[in-house]
Amino acid sequence: MEFKSIRKISRLLDPRAGFVETRVESEVRFHPLTGRTSRVAHFSLHGASRPDPGELIAATREKCPFCPQAVDRVTPMFPADIVPQGRLRRNEATVVPNLFPYDAYSALTIMTRDHYVPLSAFTEERLSDAFALSLAFLDQAGRDDPEAAFGLINWNYMPYSGGSQIHPHLQVYATATPGNLLSAEIEASRVYQERNGRNFWADLITAEQEAGERWLGAVGNTYWCTAFAPLGVLGDILAVFPDSRSCRDLTPGQIGDLARGLLKVFAYYESAGIGSFNLAFYPGPQGQDYFWTHAVVSARTSINPVVHASDINTLQHLYGEPFCVVTPEELARKVRAFF
Predict the structure, then answer these.
(1) What are the sequence ranges of the domains in the chain?
(2) Taking CA 295 as the corner, what is the angle to CA 112 and CA 163, rounded to the nearest 5 degrees?
(3) CA geometry: angle at 16 spanning 10 and 20, to 5°?
(4) What is the DSSP string of 1-60?
(5) 274-319: per-residue pLDDT in tens?
């Protein structure tokens, strides 16, 4: 396994230093499995922006479709052949059909009764219930349908993440087309095992533990590190579920471990002024032994909050080339204190 990077040096006459010639470093990193590239640059932009959510909360609460007074009246129900009881419920969590579906089996998991939940108010129970209920939907929906081979769960928390509702909710859907990045990882994992006779994800955990510079720790039966070639501008945090090939293999214990690990990440986010993130599950196909399910957490922010500048620009959006303003090793040093 190779953690490959290429260091770049740009020379310029810097007006901030009397136009003295200055050397500015950046780096191109290569994903150790797929080879996709990611840039580590723009260190002067290091930092997060977290707007005051007060106005957004007030403006969205009255017409929120996910609040308890509205959910049974305005959210759809599943046909009886998919979910006999119409909706799934577990404590605060409720699974309903997505009125604007991404695929044939597409749902939303409303995570809490509260309209707005700051990161500090999430609990292990709230997170575990929401994830477990999402998995229960995936277990019921299209279980024997080849067009529902992959169960995907993702979370857009607060507007910088692309989330359109303040009320915490997960996107859940079953599909035969799991997305370009996940498809590439699955195929590359198959090739890696075919060539090396070993599971890439087991090798990755061993390599990261031994190197230590991106390693965060184990939380029960989950393993955590920062991603070597991140997708997010503030870096990514990776949680690997050993020996879990698909979402259907995840155990209640692992879901609880994920929840406990996320609470540690949230504590770091709170300390760093980060108020928005994306989370995605990356499951493999059932019946194989070369891919382990994992989750990626990626902080979101504004590059320039004065003009509400997105942290995604042409480089990421049209060239498919991520860039990050903090090295994964520096991120790990900061997050590790919370593990």
Answers:
(1) 53-339
(2) 45
(3) 60
(4) ----EEEEEEEEEEGGGTTEEEEEEEEEEE-TTT--EEEE--GGG-S------HHHHHHH
(5) 999 999 999 999 889 999 999 999 999 988 877 888 899 999 999 9
User: Cβ(45)–Cβ(326) under 8 Å?
Assistant: no
Instruction: Tell me how many degrees the CA angle 286-124-56 measures, rounded to the nearest 5.
Output: 100
Amino acid at 187: E
Q: What amino acid is encoded at 332 in this protein? A: A
Radius of gyration of the CA atoms of the chain, in A? 21
Distance CA 263, CA 266 (A): 5
CA distance 130 to 69: 19
Distance, CA of 279 to CA of 299 (rounded, Å): 9
Question: Cα torsion for 236, 122, 267, 39, to the nearest 10°?
Answer: 10
Q: What is the DSSP letter of 274?
A: -
The C-alpha atoms of residue 160 and residue 139 are separated, in whole angstroms, by 31
288 and 160 in contact (C-beta within 8 Å)? no
53-339 in CATH: which number?
A: 3.30.428.10
- Encode pLDDT of 156-187 as tens digits: 999 999 999 999 999 999 999 999 999 999 99
DSSP string for 82-127: T-TTSSEEETTEEEEE-SS-SSSEEEEEE--SSS---GGG--HHHH
Q: How far from each other are the two terminal CA atoms of the chain, in whole angstroms?
A: 26
